[in-house]
Specification:
199 residues, alpha+beta, two-stranded antiparallel sheet, binds nickel (II) ion
Amino acid sequence: MRTPQALVPYAVLLAAVAAGLLWQMGNNRPGVGQVVETGQAAVGGPFSLTDQYGHKKTDRDFAGRYLLIYFGYTNCPDVCPTTLSVIADAMDKIGNAGKAVVPIFITVDPDRDTPDVLKNYLSSFGPQFIGLTGPMANIAAVAKSYRVTFKKHDAVNGIYTVDHSNVIYLMGPDGHFIANYDETLGPDGLAVAIEKQLP
Ligand code: NI
């Protein structure tokens, strides 16, 4: 037979459950520590980095231009060079209309990818490319704003690779996200997809 004392643990449990529910409700309320997304996905944000010519560049320097942004690193064995080739070929196919678009390569390996290294690397893909590097804290912040993740692997005999998200972002002249792609579209597919978004 239950005595009042025996009910105490149940009462405590119920109180804990109720408190948990209240806590959850509080945390799910919009505006309490959460980003509320309406319409377009919140991708992108301000940055302050250095280009391959050693000049400081911020997002404001590109205001009014379309940006094709890709994060990677110059020692990448496969997907980065493929992607940059696809972007370069797509830009060639778009031709004059493509002049409104700036392809930007942001390194996720700033320790190795100095401005000079970026300059040398990007010269293989065309003069229209802007390469950006900077302190790891700045790189990490801009990567986060683009929801790009990257992870440096332990070095073996001084050599290391960096896993990274593989996304080409098209950002509009107002700095807002328009669309994202990857290299599997090929130059023709990417050119068509970008042209659709241009005025
Ligand atoms: Ni890569």
